[in-house]
Input
Amino acid sequence: AQTVTQSQPEMSVQEAETVTLSCTYDTSESNYYLFWYKQPPSRQMILVIRQEAYKQQNATENRFSVNFQKAAKSFSLKISDSQLGDTAMYFCAFMKPYGQNFVFGPGTRLSVLP
Amino acid sequence: DGGITQSPKYLFRKEGQNVTLSCEQNLNHDAMYWYRQDPGQGLRLIYYSQIVNDFQKGDIAEGYSVSREKKESFPLTVTSAQKNPTAFYLCASSIDGASGLSYNEQFFGPGTRLTVL
Output
């Protein structure tokens, strides 16, 4: 069974600075998909970024980028120019091909400080 | 606007009662999911359905039941057999639950907070 680990329960960053959230996973699959979701205080889950394991290029979405290290089974999220609205829980998620569901990590609570 | 709605937002239940949480989507998605969220544990899958009139147990299905009579609707019943039902419940949907395509992200509803009195 796949597992997803987020080793940082809580993090904080100053506004306009850069922060990196860690995620590691365990799988025997060679092809799969990885996601970062954001859950702000409203508790609405929002997709931040996705990565296909067969793509070597790291995904980027505006201020959000990932560092995907397939051999190390690592999928970290970098947030540049942090904004107050980035304050949220961040969940890393794994999905295998033809999979019926995601496996979520326990989450990292990020606070952006003014 | 397309999206997923969940009702009610807050729900209180007395011990021994069954309660049903509603989830409706107008995204024309085939697959729907129910997750439970507890502090420090992320999201855990309760049930999922890839097609109308079919559903499968997730990791923590005991004490819960679902139905999928319509594509748009996937209600979750929390039965009295669920010993610790107080939690935040999230419903999600995706275009196709089994295609394995990268765009097969899950879209989430706003959630229901269930509290047992």
Observations:
- Chain B touches chain A at residues 31, 33, 40-45, 48, 50, 56, 58, 88, 90, 92, 97-100, 102, 104-108, 110-111 (CB under 8 Å).
- The longest strand of chain B covers residues 43-51.
- The two ends of chain B are 36 Å apart (CA to CA).
